[in-house]
Write a structure and sequence with these properties.
With 135 residues, the chain is mainly alpha-helical. It contains 4 helices and 4 strands; from the N terminus they run ααββαββα. The radius of gyration is 38 Å and the shape is rod-shaped.
Length: 135
């Protein structure tokens, strides 16, 4: 027996008692039954709202999956080789001896500022032996 059925049964028992609702006891019992009835209605409305929310979540989840499929097509999945393009270099500041990392673009630009002391570090690149042979 669910809650609303139980309340119906309780109402039937109270009606069978033929209580006088003009007395204090009768008024109190009627008020208790009315409050219980109101609580059951609220709980049922909440249960329906929760069911609607779950339906909305399921639809949103399906939409997100569709978007992921569209954006991250299986052919475009990232693998470890994709991250090789983004190398980082460890640099030690000769002024304050702090070691920090810079990305490849910053390193290749030829200079970087130390995040600790603000010293501008410049990088010099030596030409490969192959480049010298071509000259």
């Amino acid at each position: 027996m669910n809650t609303s059925e139980s309340l119906g049964y309780l109402k039937g028992l109270i009606d069978g008692l033929e209580l006088d609702v003009t007395t204090k006891e009768g008024k109190a019992i009627k008020a208790i039954v009315d409050v219980l009835d109101s609580i059951i209605e609220d709980v049922q409305e909440n249960a329906e709202d929760i069911a609607d929310i779950y339906d909305d979540i399921d639809r949103l989840e399906d939409d997100v999956i569709d978007l992921e499929d569209a954006v991250y097509d299986d052919d475009d999945e990232w693998d470890d080789d994709d991250f090789d393009e983004f190398e980082e270099y460890e640099v030690e500041c000769p002024n304050c001896n702090v070691v920090f990392e810079v990305d490849e673009d910053t390193f290749m630009s030829g200079e970087v500022q130390c995040p600790n002391c603000g010293e501008t570090l410049q990088f010099e690149f030596e030409e490969d032996d192959e480049d010298e042979d071509e000259e």
